[in-house]
Amino acid sequence: MLVLGIESSCDETAASLVESGRTIRANQVASQIPVHARYGGVVPELASRNHIVELLPVIRACVAEAGAALADIDGIAVAAGPGLVGSLLVGVEVAKGLAFGLGRPLVGVNHIEAHLMAPLIDYEGAEGLSGTPDFPFVGLIVSGGHTHLFRVEDVGRYALIGSTRDDAAGEASDTVAKMMGLPYPGGVQIDRAARRGDKAAIRFPRALPQRDSFDFSFSGLKTSVLTHLKGLDATPDPESQAFADICASFQEAVVDVLVTKTFRAARQHKVNHVVISGGVSANSRLRERALEVATSNGVAVHIPPIRLCTDNAAMIAGLGYHYLKGGSPGFDRFDLNASSSLPMGAR
Ligand code: KG4
Ligand code: ZN
């Protein structure tokens, strides 16, 4: 079953064709980073307008990449939320139009759930990070808007173990990067600068350290970096050692909390498989630490390659397949709507 996935929840316009939920036939992403960079963050109105311009060419490029025709598509999956409603609506309406025109079933899927299930897709992994996870697994979703820990029994069966009480990990990284004068998107810039830095240079706080708490909090850490910067005569030069040390120490505080809580949850829930996904899982230190801790705990960790961690449509098509194959429950939904706060499960 060849499923077309469509993703337009934030600032990436993406389409992908995935065979039977596993094999990527084509994966196209048009990034809007240059559009938003001059404003220091995503401008929702501009994001929606750009999706309108980009989406049909991206879908055409995707079909061409697969050497397929629109008529070969067996079903369509679209991210219906959560995200920016104006942006989501562009994807949802295009998906409905295509489903109606081609006479194919349509399913709306949850963007976070798609990140969580991304490792079910067949991918070339590196350094022990590949391979499909076994159920049940503990899954950490870390992105610009979300930081959640789930226990996953199967597709569609999730229990929330913990989530952030304030900022998402990516949001906090982007804000700290902005404070330090780095361009948007900041997480990746901090990752780059941190490679030259000493992660033990400054001991930034780790919030909610209690062993029985699986919630996260990053706002105090953000304030702590701000206080540190205010205590200096000026923000250090981006090329300086002091600048790299702040980035490395901040990143270590984020990674430390994410990895500690995730593997503690796996231990407490007696599961041997851990999934880490979402944009922040592209972080090089998070990948390194997760692999170290997994190896010493005898747990398998699954982190997709970066193109499947950051926003993409292969994860939408991959998850959509599992709902479409059963013909349930979002089959042929032309009243499908976008929602900024969509619960998990098919629509
Ligand atoms: O999943 P995603 O692409 O979009 C959302 O659904 O939010 O995640 C975007 C987030 C941004 O906050 C970005 O700074 C962060 O992922 N990110 C990173 C890295 N690459 C992207 N954070 C840390 N290190 C990276 N290498
Ligand atoms: Zn995302």
* CATH homologous superfamily identity of the largest domain: ATPase, nucleotide binding domain
Tally of distinct domains: 2
Principal-axis shape equals globular
For the sheet with most strands, the description reads: 5 strands, mixed
Terminal Cα span: 19 Å
Number of strands: 10
How do the SSEs run, as a string of H and E?
EEEHHEHEHEEEHHHHEHEHH
Question: What average pLDDT do the residues reach?
Answer: 93
CATH topology grouping of the largest domain: Nucleotidyltransferase, domain 5
Query: Unreliable runs, pLDDT <50, ≥5 residues?
Result: none
How many helical elements? 11
The CATH architecture name of the largest domain reads 2-Layer Sandwich
Q: Return the CATH class of the largest domain.
A: Alpha Beta
**Structural class category:** alpha/beta
Order of strands in the sheet with the most strands? 3-2-1-4-5
Computed CA radius of gyration, to the nearest angstrom: 20 Å
Helix share, percent: 40-55%
Range of strand content: 15-25%
Ligand list: 5'-O-[(R)-(carboxyoxy)(hydroxy)phosphoryl]adenosine, zinc ion
